[in-house]
Design a protein that fits this description.
Layout: E1 5-9, E2 14-22, E3 27-32, E4 35-40, E5 44-53, E6 59-61, E7 64-71, E8 78-88, E9 91-95, E10 99-101, E11 106-107, E12 110-111, E13 114-118, H1 123-131
Antiparallel strand pairs: 1-2, 1-5, 2-3, 3-4, 5-6, 7-8, 7-13, 8-9, 9-10, 11-12
Protein name: YopX protein domain-containing protein
InterPro entries: CHP16711, YopX-like_C, YopX_protein
Length: about 130
């Protein structure tokens, strides 16, 4: 499987698809308005695809904010949990107050989660969740 990345442009404050990454020169090509524009590594934040899709068929990347139904272990009470997709200790996890292995959220070929934003454009989504 070919690795897929997207990048957050720190100056433009936008997300772009990655065309190429050159680790020797530390340059990255981003697809912007049908052109490939070259940036230094320091100007962007790279995010790798998990290779998984949410329940709506949207590809899940590191840095996405997802929500999913969760259950308290001591009761059958269901609630909506939110967290950030992160790479941690050799696997992708969803992290908020607790860390949940993404494999635990698998439902067939798609995760039983919904992407509701990403940490660069929608940080307020998690701040609201923390206040509750």
């Amino acid at each position: 499987m070919q690795q897929k990345f997207r990048a957050w442009d720190k100056k433009l404050k936008e997300m772009f698809e990655v065309s190429f990454i050159d680790f020797d020169t530390k340059l990255i090509g981003l697809n912007i308005d049908l052109e490939i524009i070259i940036f230094d590594f320091d100007d962007v934040i790279l995010m790798q695809s998990t290779g998984l899709f949410d329940k709506n068929g949207q590809e899940i990347f590191e840095g996405d904010i997802v929500q999913f139904e969760d259950c308290y272990t001591e009761s059958d009470f269901l609630y909506i949990n939110k967290g950030i997709v992160e790479w941690s200790q050799g696997s992708f996890t969803v992290t908020n107050r607790d860390s949940v292995e993404m494999e635990d959220l698998l439902n067939g070929e798609r995760l039983d989660v919904t992407i509701i934003g990403n940490i660069h454009q929608n940080q307020d989504i998690l701040e609201v969740a923390d206040d509750q």
